From TrEMBL:
Region (Disordered): 495-529
Pfam families in UniProt: TPR_16
Protein name: Tetratricopeptide repeat protein
Source superkingdom: Bacteria
Protein's organism: Parvularcula mediterranea
Taxonomic path: Bacteria, Pseudomonadati, Pseudomonadota, Alphaproteobacteria, Parvularculales
């Protein structure tokens, strides 16, 4: 089963993470050009010298005016930019110019003039006069602006040059920008290395930045690197236990690797922690219980969540619930849910299941009614229709097999079933069985009839003897009532023309002709093929 596919969400998270990182920056920009060809000691000395630089008085006043305008409520960024335009139009020292460009670039960013911000930040870097910390911030700011303006190749080049030239200064966020830019270009292979490095540096610093896990999770997913993704998500659920998507994705990966018990354990933990509240994911958990041979637990879960209103009581969910109850051998529960679900479905498939359940529960009339409704609604295969007739015949027979009428009705259904594919053998077996019963009963009736006739013949002979004795003046010990009965019987024979057989048939309500066959229909089921 597919539990989750969240690539688009992860992609949005990766983009949002990079933008958030940019907004958190100071806004200063690009690579310390002075540092690349110097020793560590030389770089530190140069950096100290640069840090001691101060603004000229005129530049300081202009910058202060601009900052005051920007700090008003509401901020007056355009006026602040205009004030810095005036300053930069003059000839001022390089440090003053770089600082003014740095600040104006920030103002451009605030008014969403990103190209203006990039231009000012790059020019400030080119002047090569700012302390290294500010230049590093400018580099990151430029890369982030390239990212935000979807100039991903430029963002990648800018940050790659920086981390290559100054690996000792590179931070996790620098690699994260590179990885995010590659991901935005759908170059996940290129994104993987920087993303892994970003996470490695973040962990080494004792941090747990969730965006780094999210981006790397996306990359592994796009590259179908399930093993690496599982390892990553196993960390993520421990570090960010309240992020439900990590639990669901990890369960999906376990399931994909046929580690179904682990998948269930992960989802169960998330559910017990109150993280899984979505109806679809609750349904998935119930299915996992079924897959792990615990349908009762799945049924209890789904039923309670339906009652709580967290899972919709729709046809699909009701069908699953009925399946779970049936697998748990909770027949009454399964029947109740099927009875609720069957009318919601346009075809007869659920009535077909319901009829079978009623038959298994020996509720024969309900079985017959629902099976006939299944056939009426349609949607069954030819084989299922034939089986439905077999089941109807079975219900009729089981309900009252002692009744000739029930046996005849059942036989008709079995004959009808034999006209459908796959039911010929079953149909013939039942028809043969019923015909054998009828034949046996007919033979028994015939034997009983012969025996009754013989008894009647002996009774007639005995009565004739008694009456002969009386007629000759003899005495008998036969009671008067029997004598009267004998006179009536002999009269029926001698005067009425009755025979022992006709008298017996009359007593049994049979015609003079041979008794009719008990079966109302003698048609045999057709042979298959």
């Amino acid at each position: 089963m597919k539990l989750l596919s969240q690539h688009s969400n992860l992609r949005r998270q990766a983009s949002a993470a990079c933008i958030a990182l940019m907004l958190a920056g100071t806004g200063v920009v690009s690579a310390p050009a002075f540092a690349a060809q110097q020793t560590q000691a030389e770089r530190e000395a140069e950096d100290q010298r640069r840090s001691r630089q101060t603004l000229s008085e005129r530049s300081g006043r202009a910058l202060n005016d601009a900052l005051n305008l920007a700090n008003e409520e509401p901020p007056q960024f355009q006026q602040a930019i205009a004030r810095l335009d005036q300053l930069l139009s003059r000839s001022i020292p390089p440090y003053d110019e770089a600082t003014a460009l740095e600040i104006r670039g920030n103002f451009y960013f605030q008014v969403e003039n990103y190209q203006g911000a990039i231009r000012d930040f790059r020019r400030a870097l080119e002047l090569d006069v700012l302390p290294s910390a500010r230049e590093k911030n400018l580099i990151r700011g430029i890369a982030q602006l390239y990212y935000q303006t979807e100039q991903f190749d430029a963002a990648i080049r800018f940050m790659q040059d920086y981390v290559r030239d100054f690996p000792q200064d590179a931070e996790a966020s620098d690699y994260f920008i590179i990885a995010g830019a590659y991901a935005q270009k759908d170059d996940y292979r290129g994104a993987m290395g920087p993303a892994e490095r970003a996470l490695q540096l973040d962990q080494a610093a004792g941090n747990r930045t969730e965006n780094y896990y999210g981006l790397l999770n996306l990359i592994y997913s796009e590259l179908n690197m399930s093993a690496k993704r599982r390892d990553l998500l196993e960390q993520a659920v421990n570090f960010f236990p309240n992020t439900e998507s990590y639990w669901s994705q990890l369960a999906f990966l376990y399931n994909e690797a046929n580690r179904n018990a682990d998948a269930l354990a992960v989802l169960e933990l998330a559910y017990k922690a109150g993280l899984i509240t979505d109806g679809g994911k609750i349904r998935t958990l119930a299915q996992f219980y079924y897959d792990q041979n615990n349908p009762f637990r799945g049924a209890k879960l789904l039923s309670s969540e339906m009652q709580a209103g967290n899972v919709e009581r729709n046809l699909s969910n009701l069908e699953l619930l009925a399946q779970l109850w049936a697998a748990a051998r909770e027949q009454d529960e399964a029947i109740a849910i099927l009875a609720e679900a069957a009318p919601k479905r346009s075809d007869g498939s659920l009535y077909y299941q319901l009829g079978q359940s009623y038959l298994a529960d020996e509720r024969y009339q309900l079985a017959i009614r629902n099976l006939r409704e299944a056939i009426r609604r349609g949607g069954l295969t030819e084989r299922e229709i034939g089986n439905a007739y077999v089941l109807i015949g079975t219900a009729l027979f089981q309900e009252d097999s002692d009744s000739a009428e029930s046996r005849a009705a059942a036989r008709r259904e079995f004959v009808r079933a034999g006209r459908y594919p796959g039911q010929g053998a079953t149909s013939r077996s039942w028809v043969t069985y019923i015909d054998t019963i009828e034949s046996t009963l007919a033979q028994q009736r015939e034997v009983e009839l012969r025996q009754a006739i013989e008894r009647k013949e002996r009774e007639i002979t005995r009565c004739e003897s008694i009456l002969d004795v009386i007629e000759l003046g003899g005495r008998t010990e036969v009671p008067d009532e029997q004598i009267a009965s004998c006179r009536e019987l002999v009269a029926q024979v001698e005067e009425g023309g009755e025979t022992a057989e006709s008298l017996v048939r009359a007593e049994r309500g049979l015609d003079d002709e041979e008794a009719e066959d008990a079966s109302e229909e003698t048609e045999a089921p057709a042979e298959e093929g």
